[in-house]
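Lab manual, section 2.4: Encoding a predicted structure.

Procedure: take the sequence of the chain (418 residues), apply the prediction step described in section 2.3, and record the output as structure tokens. A sample record is shown.
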Amino acid sequence: MKLNFDALIIGAGPAGLGAALSLKENGIDDILIVDREDSPGGILLQCIHNGFGLHRFKEELTGPEYAERDINLVRERNIDILLNTCALDIISEENHKTVVLLSEDKGLLRAKAKVVILAMGCRERNRGNIAIPGARPAGILTAGFAQKMMNMLGHPPGNEIVILGSGDIGLIMARRLSWEGARVKAVIEAQAYPGGLNRNIVQCLHDFDIPLYLSHTISNILGAKRIESVEVAPLDHGVPAKPEGRFSLACDTLLLSVGLIPENELSLKAGVILDPATRGAVVDANLMTSVEGIFACGNVLQVHDLADNVSEEAACCGKSAARYLVGERVKKREIPLKTGNLVRYVLPACAEVGKEVIVSFRPISPAQNVTLVIKTDTEELLRKKERKIFPSIMHRINLKQIPENAAYLEVSFVSEEK
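Recorded output:
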């Protein structure tokens, strides 16, 4: 097979497909997408619930329906996809990248590309990441794997369920399992506020009378061959309460919905610098990483709450990569982007003066009646009142032009004066 390309994209989920379509729209034809799964579409294929596409397509779609639209466009535009193929390494050569691939059908390959776009998505944190004490019986799964078991393989994970963590996948699985006749005993959340979108709290928990225990954690797991119960402890300033405050829930299954982490091992092997807050790559305003010619977009860059935002970011990434390939990208002076009050992270890491930039950021904690302020060292660029903010909701703001005399850009939320 051909092993020389202008652009090679790793990942065929919404980010990889969106980046490929954007490259094609911007005049780049020689593109290869590789993915380790046997079908393109990524995590969307197991998300059979609706709620996708409201921003991008102005209609409500399921995950597979959303993915199908991009898959069909990729096929119509004759963009090559190599499935059942893992990317093992990215090696920077003098004027190209060599991507080491392991294909189920074609064996070990070394593909060359002028640019590489990282679109590998993210993975779930598991029990090892959060160190829950207790026995190690069967019946402990991540919520995403349980979703795949249910929606793609037709295997219910259990009958009496406890869910640790109130991330969106866990909330959606609470509803899905209830529909299938399982009894979801409770959702346990260590934070003092839910981790998922408010609409999922209402539609997936309140509508099914599933209790949500905030500021609680699982302090012990009991069971022999299969999990039999969990011990739940209230938290006092992050520390489990004394034994008298704890209670037990009988269950045969524990689902973990305790956060997502960008798939960053390949990024690290390629020499890409990671942001400690997002755990994804540090990128400039063009979504290029610290390694020349390697771009990143989607959940490998930052964990998104909406597929529509992934597609938007991927389109920007593809356009930037196309400009880089044809030599149109001329960098102006760059200034750093800084986090201010109540902001956990801001992306990209820098912006170019005199140019527009899309700024993404998340709040550290919930707050009410605050004002979003984006400013430079010399002037205020945006001021917007926000009635409520949540860490589960990512903000994206398009700043049309960064002042030429700016030294930095800061994003913060400030309390409104009463």
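Check your result against the sample. The first helix runs from residue 14 to 25.
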